[in-house]
Amino acid sequence: MESANQFLKVFRVQTRRWLFVVLVVAVTHLLFQSLLLPYGKALRSLMPDSEVGVHDESGLPALKSFSKSVMVRNPLTVNASDLMSDSVFKGSLEDDEDSKFGSDTGDDSGLREVDGDTNNGIVSEGKGQDNPIELVTDREVDDDSVAENVKDLNDLSELEIERIGENSATVEPAGEAKQSLPLKQIVQPNLEIVSDGVPEQHTSQSIANIGGEKTLSIVSPLTNITHLKTEESNASSAASSAVPKSDIATSVNISALIGSPGKKKMRCNMPPKTVTSIFEMNDILMRHHRSSRAMRPRWSSVRDKEVLAAKTEIEKASVSVSDQELHAPLFRNVSMFKRSYELMDRTLKVYVYRDGKKPIFHQPILKGLYASEGWFMKLMEGNKHFAVKDPRKAHLFYMPFSSRMLEYALYVRNSHNRTNLRQYLKEYAESIAAKYRYWNRTGGADHFLVACHDWAPYETRHHMEHCIKALCNADVTAGFKLGRDVSLPETYVRSARNPLRDLGGKPPSQRHILAFYAGNLHGYLRPILLKYWKDKDPDMKIFGPMPPGVASKMNYIQHMKSSKYCICPKGYEVNSPRVVESIFYECVPVIISDNFVPPFYEVLNWEAFSVIIAEENIPNLKDILLSIPEKKYFEMQFAVRKLQRHFLWHAKPEKYDLFHMTLHSIWYNRVYQIKPR
């Protein structure tokens, strides 16, 4: 009996020791994993079915099959039963903003990149209106425009059925948020992560902290210009002689309105440190077209000679006195544009890479805020006129990825880190450079991408730096290269089957509203707009977010159709879908966004059909609009209607439409960037 008790005593001691050892090992493992996996995967790493990223044959990260349904991004789910078999695209990948019209849904905190080519590219804050911590995407719908419900059954029947591919999954609406999508996290610890603000000194530096009196001028060195430029105090006396005293107004001190200089803020909530005016952009564009900055090819090509010959013909284009198809005032040089377009249609051949797996590659989104990249992808991949199967015949090479799907598939919720998104595209670029010889010949200068997501400039930085980038986020202070890159129109498509729904507006005589704006208060600029004009003047219909519902959506559209001028202020980033919406509804756009390069800037004369106002002149908005003569307004409104055809998507591309305009600008910039061997 005594020996038995002794045995039990020894057994208890040994058991306690082993439990202590196991506990120490487990705690050590968790601590170690927490350092390496800062995204909540430490506990899951102990489980038998832990997330382990896999690579497909191309060396790119691929999806892995799992036994449970997991979340890509609410409201999208991935079903494990579909992962190993062919599946269909059951729903439209829309933005979170689609669920509530004109309200702050999803994430408003905004994951923003800091200017500059440093590795510290992320600034996080995590302070949304209704969801203070959850950070999923870069920004809400730029608003508010005409959002639709995710589960609108009338629209589900209009969607095209797309194949996702063997490594992807069926995407369908879901109700609740679940786990993040299990993908390999290509994350370098302690890189690309910045605290919940930016260096303090950035806040105090603003475009409005300029001493001296400001003078408004409606005079421009270009023809048909309605642009407002601020002059420094040393030039105010000369400008004031050309502008009546009643038109001279005080500019707004933006720094004083956005908060205390001592409080850290995100880049998207601060005014830019430097401002490039539309006049300076013109000079930069002309200078870059005169002197190419593209890399000299490693060996000569017949295709290069064809492009150089086209450049000579474009520059020798005969002056067109009148054209039945094109409205000449819309263009910088209508003769050069028409000749360039003809040569593109006759000469250009594009090779579309087949590499890359769905859903990030070859999976166009045809509806929502980022539809431009999807429509171009769909029409380019299905094109028989420009696309060739033999890369030796190609003048340009298209990399068909979706920046929106890249975020949906790879961004880790609440991680405040996009390193893995950029790394994914870096590996893709390296894979095509290793597989094909064409990238290495020019360093990617004859390759192009089309991306509408706000993160695209960051995701394609460095490894795709020589490529032609067609970007919605066309910010000259964030890496956009005038004369090489293309400003892609951000088009909010509400119906995938009928992208022209609700097209048109009232004639000028029936537009009784002077100016209209409604939307969420994203960024630093829109609150300033509302501070000065909300409920201040019956002629200025300036609102905040409209309440959700079909009635509000139609009210928004009717306001645009009934207004002379539609205000297009920047949100978190410089671009806004209102610019294209204004054209869609035949309303003269008023762009308030410093450093924004308007769409197709290399060929279009934006001063002929829009008003571009410096951010600091918001207090003078009504005076500026009233100072435009009625005759000039009628000319601009007529020009907007003529311009409309260039900003429309068609299921079957039409001459001079948005597909052809996008491709032409890519071609045109390549023509002026190419260097002979």
TrEMBL record:
<dbReference type="GO" id="GO:0000139">
    <property type="term" value="C:Golgi membrane"/>
</dbReference>
<keyword id="KW-1133">Transmembrane helix</keyword>
<dbReference type="Pfam" id="PF03016">
    <property type="entry name" value="Exostosin_GT47"/>
</dbReference>
<keyword id="KW-0812">Transmembrane</keyword>
<keyword id="KW-0735">Signal-anchor</keyword>
<dbReference type="InterPro" id="IPR040911">
    <property type="entry name" value="Exostosin_GT47"/>
</dbReference>
<comment type="similarity">
    <text>Belongs to the glycosyltransferase 47 family.</text>
</comment>
<dbReference type="GO" id="GO:0016757">
    <property type="term" value="F:glycosyltransferase activity"/>
</dbReference>
<feature type="domain" description="Exostosin GT47">
    <location>
        <begin position="346"/>
        <end position="626"/>
    </location>
</feature>
<keyword id="KW-0808">Transferase</keyword>
<protein>
    <recommendedName>
        <fullName>Exostosin GT47 domain-containing protein</fullName>
    </recommendedName>
</protein>
<keyword id="KW-0328">Glycosyltransferase</keyword>
<dbReference type="InterPro" id="IPR004263">
    <property type="entry name" value="Exostosin"/>
</dbReference>
<keyword id="KW-0333">Golgi apparatus</keyword>
<feature type="transmembrane region" description="Helical">
    <location>
        <begin position="18"/>
        <end position="40"/>
    </location>
</feature>
<feature type="region of interest" description="Disordered">
    <location>
        <begin position="94"/>
        <end position="131"/>
    </location>
</feature>
<keyword id="KW-0472">Membrane</keyword>
